[in-house]
Write a structure and sequence with these properties.
17% helix, two-stranded antiparallel sheet, alpha+beta
């Protein structure tokens, strides 16, 4: 099986190299066109590339099928990014990794026995306990009686030595 190339591509004019060079340049451009892979349709022009036809590989800092999503900062828990390796916290979250619950009281309701919760920032809180209760979470009775397993607590009348 033989294939004959058009004469004009290889033909050298006798006294003028210009025709030969422009034909050679056209041949090189044609070869580059055929060697360069055509990426998957939709692959981001700047953030993606391909080595084989119909693939889409992402440059560092980009991800997704079409390399259109930035990669979040490693360890970013409740955040998003606008550009690679950012961690912009979602509403209600703070800290370097967006892992500190700024609305701890609302999300966890830690205060017991009718205590009032106050967010103090960075995932911390304090409870204001109603009369008769004490502890970080108002979990204990002020009179020292602690009930477990749903029991009812009563202070018994004790007679101290006569």
């Amino acid at each position: 099986m033989s294939h004959t190339c058009p004469q004009s591509i290889y033909k050298k004019e006798s006294s003028d190299n210009h025709s030969f060079l422009s034909s050679t340049s056209s041949l090189i451009n044609a070869m580059i066109y055929f060697i360069t892979a055509v990426c998957l349709s939709g692959c981001h022009d700047t953030h993606g590339f391909c080595n084989s036809p119909n693939e889409c590989r992402c440059h560092t800092g980009w991800e997704g099928d079409y390399c259109s999503e930035c990669t979040r900062y490693p360890g970013c828990k409740h955040g998003r990014c606008s550009k690679p390796f950012e961690c912009e916290c979602e509403e209600g979250w703070g800290g370097l990794f967006c892992n500190q619950d700024l609305n701890y009281c609302t999300n966890h309701k830690p205060c017991k026995n009718g205590g009032t919760c106050f967010n103090t920032g960075q995932g911390s809180y304090t409870c204001s306990c109603p009369t008769g209760f004490v502890g970080d979470d108002c979990q204990s009775r002020a009179d020292g009686c602690t009930c477990v397993n749903g029991g009812t607590c009563r202070v018994s009348d004790m007679i101290v030595g006569l």
